[in-house]
DNA sequence: AAATGGTTCAACCGCGGAATA
DNA sequence: ATATTCCGCGGTTGAACCATT
């Protein structure tokens, strides 16, 4: 049996024309963001439903950011990539206005190269070559903390040559919520620091990852804030590379 | 000014899983 | 229960653009 796509007339490919964009926008608005093959047919566009979906999601959809990814977003991408790997759509959900395709491109063209130039494996986020002993390590998950403790043990049990390779460079950046310096509130550096969790500070107030109580400015329940800020089940900590101590 | 090489990113492809007939 | 269609994802490609020689 011939597939649906095989029955289609010759389909256009390549860059979209303004008129095509206009028509697609009109029909998606009318028919909703489903049934892309139907939209493709109804609109009279000589494009596949798949192509229409892609164009809409990555270019025409409202509220897309068109400016370049900034350093804050880059930090988030790095952080989430370490946690989830190449799960671009999942990462994109944490960056409003950004598409998975955009993040994937940015990763491959900017971050990946940046990490490689620093001797970091972009897949594992671990050092490819001997790390500088003076490098500060920050932001690591609970499991990563355990990993580090395991590694610390391994290092102690290893020969000097092995130690060089077991020492691990982690250039993850520490992500913190903006300090809410409410009028007359914080007088010291740490006061009021935890009134918004990272999830809420990104605008995801009802997220399951919210740790402050749906944006109600609750203080994090954690009894030990000195260990860092919890985000997505991770703790932000600082690990001294020389002593391998969590601070 | 032209040639060359590198970079960027929009778009396509193939696959797997979910939904539907 | 099975076949087919639809959808979404991650990987890859290639044209356009930019920088350098």
Automatic annotation (TrEMBL):
PANTHER family in UniProt: F14D16.11-RELATED
Keyword Membrane among UniProt keywords: no
Compartment list: Nucleus
Keyword Oxidoreductase annotated: no
Organism expressing this protein natively: Cucurbita pepo (Vegetable marrow)
Classification via Pfam families: Myb_DNA-binding (PF00249)
Coiled-coil ranges from the UniProt annotation: none
One cellular component term from this protein's GO annotations in UniProt: nucleus
Family annotation (InterPro entries): Homeodomain-like_sf (IPR009057), Myb_dom (IPR017930), Myb_TF_plants (IPR015495), SANT/Myb (IPR001005)
Keyword annotations: DNA-binding, Nucleus, Repeat, Transcription, Transcription regulation
Segments of this protein annotated with the region Disordered: 142-161
UniProt name for this protein: MYB6
Record's compositionally biased regions (Basic and acidic residues): 149-161
Gene Ontology molecular function terms on file: DNA binding
Residue ranges of every copy of the Myb-like domain listed in the record: 8-60, 61-111
Segments forming domain HTH myb-type: 12-60, 61-115
């Amino acid at each position: 049996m011939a597939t649906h796509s095989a029955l289609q007339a010759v389909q256009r490919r390549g860059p979209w024309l303004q008129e095509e964009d206009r028509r697609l926008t009109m029909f998606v608005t009318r028919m909703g963001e489903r049934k892309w093959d139907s939209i493709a047919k109804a609109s009279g566009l000589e494009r596949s439903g798949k192509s229409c979906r892609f164009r809409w999601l990555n270019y025409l959809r409202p509220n897309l950011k068109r400016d370049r990814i900034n350093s804050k977003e880059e930090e988030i991408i790095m952080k989430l990539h370490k946690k989830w790997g190449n799960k671009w759509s999942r990462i994109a959900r944490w960056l409003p206005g950004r598409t998975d395709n955009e993040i994937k491109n940015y990763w491959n063209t900017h971050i990946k190269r940046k990490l490689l130039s620093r001797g970091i494996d972009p897949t594992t986020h671990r050092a490819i070559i001997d790390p500088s002993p003076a490098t500060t390590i920050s932001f690591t998950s609970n499991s990563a903390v355990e990993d580090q403790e395991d590694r610390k043990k391994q290092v102690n049990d290893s020969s000097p040559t092995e130690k060089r390779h077991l020492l691990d460079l982690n250039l993850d950046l520490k992500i913190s919520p903006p300090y809410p310096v409410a009028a007359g509130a914080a007088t010291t550096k740490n006061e009021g620091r935890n009134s918004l969790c990272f999830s809420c500070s990104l605008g995801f107030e009802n997220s399951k990852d919210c740790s402050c109580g749906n944006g109600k400015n609750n203080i994090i329940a954690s009894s030990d804030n000195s260990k860092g800020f919890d985000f997505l089940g991770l703790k932000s900590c600082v690990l001294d590379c020389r002593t391998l101590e969590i601070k």
